[in-house]
Amino acid sequence: MPVRTTTLTPWRLTALLSAGALATLTACSGSPDPGPSTAAPVTAGPSIDADKTPAPTPSVEPVWPLTGVAVKGDVVNRAALAVKIENTSMARPQTGLDEADVVWETVVEFQVSRFIAVFHSKVPDEVGPIRSVRPMDPIILAPMHGLLAFSGGQAGILPLIPKNGIQPLSNDRGTPGMYRTHDRAAPHNVYGTPKTFWKSANEDHQDSPGEQFLFAREADQATAVMSGSSATKLTYHLSAAANPQWSWDGDANKWLRSEGTAPATARNGKRLSATNVVTIVAAHPDSGFNAQGGAPVPTYKLVGHGTGLIATGGKTIKVEWKKAANDQPLRLFLENGDPATLAPGNTWVELVPKEDGSFKVS
Questions:
Q1: 266 phi and psi angles, rounded to 5 deg
Q2: Which of 36, 71, 91, 93 has the maximal Cβ count within 10 Å?
Q3: Run of H or E residues at 77
Q4: Cα–Cα distance measured from residue 92 to residue 214, given in angstroms and rounded to the nearest whole number
Q5: Looking at the domain assignment, is residue 25 inside a domain?
Q6: 291, 259 in Cβ contact below 8 A?
Q7: Total domains present in the chain
Q8: What predicted TM-score, i.e. pTM, was given to this entire model?
Q9: Is 13 helix (H, G, I), strand (E, B) or coil?
Q10: Which of 45-54, 73-82, 117-126 shows the lowest mean pLDDT across its residues?
C-alpha cells in the first residue's frame, strides 16, 4: 500500500505550534484562560499654563509730604525751608505766610508771638519780616532735617540748630538772599527770597522731608470731619499780647485767621487761612536764655505727650499729641489710640502754654 505524505504549509505549522504551546501552558497552570484584561479608567484635568505675568502694582498718586495735597506735574525733591517771621503790629501784614505749608505760632519773650513758617510745596517770591532764632525752633524743626532762615541769634542758641540736623541760614552771617527794605524801620525790615535760600542748601540738606502730620487722601475722610463736633469759631489766649481767632468759612471751606478781632491778611491782601488748625497744649518753661534787660526767653517742652485739638471742615475733635524725641515728628491720636488724620491742605499750629494759656471752641 502506498504511504500518504502530508505536507504542512507554513500557516498550518504555526497554528499547530500555537495550539500545543497553549495546551502545555494550560496543563502547567491548572487555571482557565482569564480572558483579556481591561485597564482602569483615567480621568485627566485640563492642562493650564501658569500665568507668569506679575500682578499690577496699584498706582498711588504722589502727595506733598507737609500738606497731603496731590502733586501736579513732576515730583520735586527739595528740603523743607523754615523761616522765622515776626508777628508784632509793626511787622503786619507779613509777606509769604499765605503760601506756607505749615505755620507754627509760638510765644517768645515779652509775651509776643512769632511764627515758624515752613515752605515746601510752594515757592513764594519773598518772605518776611525775618527775625531771630529761638530755642523752641530746633525742637519743632528737627524732624524735617531742613533749612532755617533767621536774622540772627544768641551765641548759646545758635549751636542748637546744627545739633538738631538743621542747616542755619543767618542774615548776620551773610546768607545770600536776605536784605533790608526801606519801607519799614529796623529791626522789622529783613526780608528774603526762598529761591535763593534753597540754592544755599548743602549736600546734607537736599532731600524732601518725610510726612509730619498724617493726612487722609480726601478731605471728607479726615478724622475731625468724620467723627468731630460742629464748630464755627476758635478763640485763643496764648499770652497777654497774643490772642488769635479762627472762624469757619463754609463757602471757602477754610478757617480764617484774625489777630484779636481784626482780619489777618498777607501783604498781598489775601486773607490768612488754613485747611487745618491744630492746637497743642504744652509746657512753656524758661529756657535759661535771657533777652534784652534780662527778660527770660521761654521754650516749649514737646518731647512727651499732652492734650490737643484738631479743627477741620467746620468740625473739631480732641486728640492726644505724642513726640518720642527731638528728631521724631509730633503725631496726633484719638482717645482709643488710633492715629488722627488731617485734610489735605495747609496747617496752622497754635502752641498753647499749659501754665497760663487757654482756648475755646464755639
A1: -85, 170
A2: 91
A3: none
A4: 31
A5: no
A6: no
A7: 1
A8: 0.84
A9: helix
A10: 45-54
